Amino acid sequence: MTVGAETSELEAIASEALAALNSRSQIATFSSRVRGLSLAQAYGVTPRLRSAFEARGERIVGRKIGFTNRNMWKAFGVESPIWGYVTSGTTSNLSDASVAAAQDFAEPRIEPEIVFGLSASPAAGMSEAQLCNCIGWVALGFEIVQSIYPGWAFAAPDCVAANSLHGALYVGERSAFAPRAQQWSRELARFEVELSCNGDLAHRGGGALVLGSPLHALRHIVDLLAADPANPPLAADEIVSTGTLTLAAPIRPGERWAARASGIPLEDIAIQIA
Fold it and tell me: Closest Cα partner for 103 from 258, 251, 248?
């Protein structure tokens, strides 16, 4: 395939994925089609998604990392974490917006996550202490993920082409990172979390399920972006949602979801599904 033909095809994929995301409709996976789709090609779609978000007035506020839980890889046909963009149109503070409408997403699921706010741009090869020095704050948050592919059946390139399944991000109360960076570093690898629905326990998990620690997930995306000529590295003031702490759970109108962490001083979070 010529460069021009591939460029045209990537633009067509971005356009089709965006149309599905905008309409909450579902489509056949790109990887199952005659031409297929590689992971490298899918990350070539990502800049086109960014341009489309910005063209409609959204600011890029950070990234989301997906599939940081290795226990999910076989079930979803992936072999490593992926990432996508979070924007001003998809990101809210739970103090300002504590209701999510299920109808706004395709086959939505909820994930409790650790969210970092960057105070400096991290670089590949940094030690954990240096990486911690780039974090301004930490919080619990909920990501609503969605699948424009029926039944959540896809390959990794399909996920990336759909902005890595991102739907919305709701960020809880933020805690300053620097004053207790060493404690955060230890706690992030060891803490546990309970995800409940209408007061009933749905899933248990914790920081160790996120590549061993959410800090490891942050390092992974830093290294991944350092080797990616098509997409920019993380910058100061970006938000990074590091991947689900439990299994993702389907959501329905009328449910109230809550996450409570133990072993780390982060505020509980809750959201109502409308």
Answer: 251
274's CB contacts (< 8 A; 6+ apart) are 99, 100, 101, 102, 253
For residue 227, what are the β-bridge partners?
Answer: none
Buried b (16+ CB within 10 A) or exposed e, 51-83: ebbeeeebebbbbbbbbbbeebeeebebeebbb
Query: 190-219: per-residue pLDDT in tens?
Result: 999 999 999 999 999 999 999 999 999 999
| Domains of the chain and any CATH numbers | 3-273 (3.90.850.10)
**232: DSSP letter:** P
- Provide Rg for the chain, Cα atoms: 18
From residue 196, how far is each of 84, 139, 272 by CA, in Å?
26, 18, 12
- Find tokens 């395939």 and name the residue: 1
Contact (CB, 8 A) for 258 and 269: yes
Question: The pTM is what?
Answer: 0.95
